[in-house]
Write a structure and sequence with these properties.
heterodimer; A: 313 residues; mainly alpha; MetI-like fold; 13 helices; 78% helix; 0% strand; B: 345 residues; alpha/beta; eight-stranded mixed beta sheet; four-stranded antiparallel beta sheet; 32% helix; binds adenosine-5'-triphosphate; binds magnesium ion
């Protein structure tokens, strides 16, 4: 319990730092946002009005606390391009990106862990060579190209998959699955190709440890040695890796949403950048970082559940 | 072994009270580039019911590999038992299937390891790890197994056993973990307890407690002990018989008194001499005698020849065999061959 409280305090501090850094980055970005927003023809009066309206005439620290205050109440400001609250735009797009992220993570976990176990059990020279080539290949393939390959070979041949656009879960579950599966695979496949090796290594490392010999000396069968003891212990290093994946997957959605024309956060981010919609860009960036920080928090909580040495320290 | 005759054809009477008979055991490690580590080479010995046998020898002499061979837990690859026979109450262990062997481990043979800090699974409770054996071998239900685990913890000296079963290894000290290891090893009332340097990693004060506990448990459960140790003081205190190992082979075997009084092998002599007060660690032997030959490259002759004060021409040519020089006292040394015709292997 003490551990969780400590971790929550750390979470709050991290979030505060993240907000500060995001704010600072937008301050030092080149170009005057007001002039960019209003275009080259704007006159001084227009500029002054908008500056006042956005509070940009205030001292920096006041601006920062205004902005943080807005964050805390869910007010991320007004999008310039869409003339709508940023939070509304983000919430609209959220289900797509969250579904895609969860589906990708599920695929990675469901394939990489069993594959890692499978390979760990069959460790020999040949399988090492074969599987490390698979990893090399997985790392080398660009995701937009993999996405196009999947569209070409799966999307075009099976009507189950839709290759463009999104169907809400509430409209059709099958439709939503069909729309999300290929993009999820596009992000998941390179992740799996790399991460299953971490799983394998984590398991092989555990198998070397003294406690495994003790368990065997008790007459416990190899199946229990693997699935009760070794796997449970390996979950601690494996969790570290999967904590890192999440950030990569969130980043992956940005590109893949373009390839599959999915109306998610990633697409919104790219639109907002090309329109120099600063409040929107800032809102999305802070949203993405919060998600990543929060997932890391969840990972740490999971650690303490998996590892009594952390929980009881 | 009351009769002076040696193992090859044991009489039925001798067989009856033999618990463990190891014959011609040979365990190799294939470490690549055609190199073969002969970790255990032609090792034969037996342990009677209720007997405590000490296995001594310097680091790398093959003590651990001998004990792991008995319960068939050699890391494989690269290790492999290539020859020999290991019989427990007459039953050959080397030909058992893996499933049958699992019924022997933990049930007929319990094992305690050197490293109490790392020998327990860090993510399961003490109770879980003791109950695991009981559920497997005694077919107890979970609640009964935990009850039994509490009893065992009390026997090995935990006053607050009810709490300890809910604790994790990292919450206990080294000595306490070793008590837990003893509880696990003894949980199914094994016929043989193998203890591989069970006290080496512990504080001196705790060492004596753990050792006493082992002896107590042995008497209580009427088990035999194979005790691997570096500590000649411990040998003198608890062993009935001693096996001295060198270079993967047994070089001397004798009842404990005989070994100290009538030491035969020059290596054993060096061992004992290098230990003015017998508590000193055998690991220091290196500095006294120079290093032992590497186990992947033994000389043709006697493996101790290069370090031996009494080395003769013959020693460089031919590795001596283990010969029974007088009843129950065997030695692998050319110095004694002329005396040993009667009991020759
Ligand atoms: N996994 C392994 N791979 C290769 N060689 C090994 C392996 N394990 C042990 N050996 C070799 O087998 C020989 C015997 O080792 P063993 O562990 O039995 O020695 P020991 O007498 O128990 O020593 P110590 O007192 O240090 O525990 C050594 O030469 C060692 O190098
Ligand atoms: Mg050892």
């Amino acid at each position: 319990m003490a551990y969780i409280i400590r971790r929550i305090i750390l979470l709050i501090v991290t979030m505060a730092l993240v907000s500060l850094i995001t704010f600072a980055v937008f301050q030092v970005m080149p170009g005057d946002p007001i002039r960019i927003m209003l275009g080259p023809d704007a006159d001084e009066v227009q500029i002054e009005t908008l500056t006042k309206k956005l509070g940009l005439d205030q001292p920096l620290h006041i601006q920062y606390f205004d902005w943080v205050g807005g964050l805390l109440t869910g007010d991320l400001g007004q999008s310039i391009r869409f003339s709508k609250p940023v939070s509304e735009l983000v919430i609209d797009r959220l289900p797509v990106t969250i579904s895609l992220t969860i589906m990708t993570l599920t695929l990675v976990v469901l394939v990489a862990i069993p594959l890692g176990i499978f390979v760990a059990k069959r460790k020999n020279k040949l399988s090492d060579v074969v599987f490390s080539s698979v990893t090399q290949l997985g790392m080398a393939i660009p995701s937009f190209w993999l996405g196009m390959l999947l569209i070409l070979y799966l999307g075009m041949n099976f009507s189950f998959f839709s290759v463009s656009g999104y169907v809400p879960w509430s409209t059709s579950i099958v439709g939503a699955l069909g729309a999300l599966l290929l993009p999820a695979m596009t992000i998941a496949i390179p992740q799996i190709a790399v991460k299953f090796r971490y799983v394998r290594n984590a398991i092989l490392e555990q198998l070397q440890l003294d406690y495994v010999r003790t368990v065997r000396s008790k007459g416990i069968t190899e199946k229990f040695v693997m699935y009760k003891h070794v796997l449970r212990n390996s979950m601690i290093p494996i969790l570290t890796i999967f904590g890192l994946i999440t950030a990569e997957v969130v980043a992956g959605t940005i590109i893949v949403e373009q390839v599959f024309a999915l109306p998610g956060i990633g697409q919104l981010l790219i639109t907002s950048i090309s329109y120099r919609d600063f409040p929107l860009v800032q809102g999305i960036v802070i949203y993405i970082t919060f998600v990543v920080v929060f997932i890391n928090f969840l990972v740490d909580i999971l650690y303490s559940i998996l590892d009594p040495r952390i929980r009881l320290s | 072994m009351q009769s002076p005759q040696v193992n090859k054809e044991p009489s039925t009477k001798a067989l009856e009270d033999q618990l463990l008979e190891v014959n011609g055991l040979k365990t190799n490690f294939y470490i690549g580039k055609g190199k073969v580590v002969q970790a255990v080479d032609d090792v034969s010995f037996s342990i009677r019911k209720g007997e405590t046998v000490a296995l001594v020898g310097e680091s790398g002499s093959g003590k651990s590999i001998t004990s792991l061979s008995i319960i068939r837990l050699i890391p494989s690859p690269p290790g492999k038992i290539v020859e020999g026979s290991i019989r427990l109450e007459g039953k050959e262990l080397l030909t058992l299937s893996e499933d049958e062997m699992c019924k022997v481990r933990g049930n007929d043979i319990g094992m305690i390891f050197q490293e109490p800090m790392t020998s327990l699974d860090p993510v399961f409770t003490i109770g879980n790890q003791i109950a695991e054996s009981l559920m497997k071998h005694k077919k107890l239900k979970k609640s009964a197994a935990y009850k039994e685990a509490i009893e065992l913890l009390k026997i090995v000296g935990f006053a607050r056993a009810e709490e300890v079963i809910k604790e994790y290894p990292h919450q206990l000290s080294g000595g306490m973990r070793q008590r837990v290891m003893i509880a696990i090893a003894m949980s199914c009332n094994p016929k043989l307890l193998i203890a591989d340097e069970p006290t080496t990693a512990l504080d001196v004060t705790v060492q004596a407690q753990i050792l006493n506990l082992m002896v107590e448990m042995k008497d209580k459960f009427q088990s035999s002990i194979l005790l691997i140790t570096h500590d000649m003081g411990v040998v003198a205190e608890v062993a009935d018989r001693v096996l001295v190992m060198y270079g993967g082979q047994i070089v001397e075997e004798a009842p404990v008194r005989d070994l100290f009084i009538d030491t035969m092998h020059p290596y054993t002599t060096a061992l004992l001499k290098s230990i003015p007060n017998i508590d000193v660690d055998l690991k220091r032997l290196d500095s006294i005698l120079g290093t032992a030959p590497p186990a992947h490259d033994f000389p043709r002759g006697c493996r101790f020849a290069a370090r031996c004060k009494h080395v003769m021409e013959k020693c460089l040519e031919e590795n001596p065999t283990l010969v029974e020089i007088k009843p129950n006292h065997k030695v692998r040394c050319h110095l004694y061959e002329h005396q040993g015709g009667l009991y020759s292997e």
